[in-house]
Amino acid sequence: MDYGPVIDFHVHLPYRYKDPIAAADYLVKKLDEANVERAVVIAIEGGVESFKKRVNPKYVRNAVQEILDYVAHSPIRSIRTLIFEPDKGIDEHVQLLIEHRRRTEEVVKAVEKYPGRLYPVGSYNPDYGVDKVIERMRVYRDKLLGVKIYPTLHCISPSSSKLYKLYRFVEGINGLVIVHTGCDPGLWELPKMCRYARPKFVAEAAKKFPDIPFIIAHMGSYSAIMPGIYFREALQAYNVDNVWMDTSAVDPLFVERAVEEVGYDKILFGSDFPYLVGFTIEDSIRDILKLDISSDAKRAILHDNAERLLRMLGRL
Ligand SMILES: [Zn+2]
Fold first, then answer.
1. Cα(12) to centroid of ligand 1, in Å?
2. 121-154 b/e with 16+ CB inside 10 Å = b?
3. 275 C-alpha to center of ligand 1: Å?
4. Could you give the CA distance from residue 179 to residue 147 in angstroms, rounded to a whole number?
5. Main-chain phi, psi angles of 14, to 5 degrees
């Protein structure tokens, strides 16, 4: 099945290329192969120091205790390690945060070669705090499309008043906010660790800042243990005018259900490249094409909604 040009609203720089420019070149090659005309490239800053300060063996024990029935027989190796060797488990997570870190500056620099094709989104970082994050982003105010909050990695609610200043900065650049929702691999699968990554908090923030588009990444459904964990809540949050959702790493059945129940005007295609291991960007596009929804809906999700949003923000 042939398809027209696509806009991918959720990609990252491939982590196997440490050099950001080489990573961007590889990304563009993959986008070309999948007929993606534009992509939103998102930074990842987990906040290693904040994580180390908060997460100790006792904290992990308590977090695991809450869902012992689920994880006691968990096939997820990193969770098993956490139960039996918490120190080693914590260390592995710190390594993950470091390995996958892509600072805002790196992403801006990497995409410079591809203006109008790649749009950089910066990352909040709890190690710096709001003022310092804004200071770092201000340098790129003409380039950034917006900012991403990872309530799992950042251990902060997107509706926290601590973030208001950052949202006002986003307002000032006519940008958007992307919020990771659901869980995250490893330790962040535990309810205690993903408790802030709920769509209802995105809705709260969005009501407070009606001029900023807020995007619920993963439709609240990301979880290896409980897929669809906050999916119903995402559909609820979508009722707020300035709340959008992306399809990245979402099981196609949930996307189909979302279109049936709430429509598709603010649903954006996202591949989450390169984080869906074993899937190409084209695979993710085909997942949308295979859905039992109208071809108008498919075109809107794969291209037109994103184009409208970029135009709304003066980026097209
Ligand atoms: Zn992602």
1. 7
2. bbbbbbbbebeebbebbeebeebbbbbbbbbbbb
3. 7
4. 9
5. -55, 130
User: In order of start, what are the domains of the chain with their CATH numbers?
Assistant: 6-47+102-312 (3.20.20.140)
pLDDT tens by residue, 94-109: 999 999 999 999 999 9
What pLDDT is stored for residue 162 in this prediction?
A: 98
Distance 283 CA to ligand 1 centre (A): 16
pLDDT in tens, 208-258: 999 999 999 999 999 988 899 999 999 999 999 999 999 999 999 999 999
191 against 103, higher pLDDT:
103
pTM score > 0.90 for this model?
yes
Neighbours of ion ligand 1 (CB under 5 A): 272
Q: Ligand 1: distance of its center to the CA of 221 in Å? A: 13
169 Cβ neighbours under 8 A, 6+ residues apart: 134, 137, 138, 147
d(CA 269, ligand 1 centre) in Å: 12
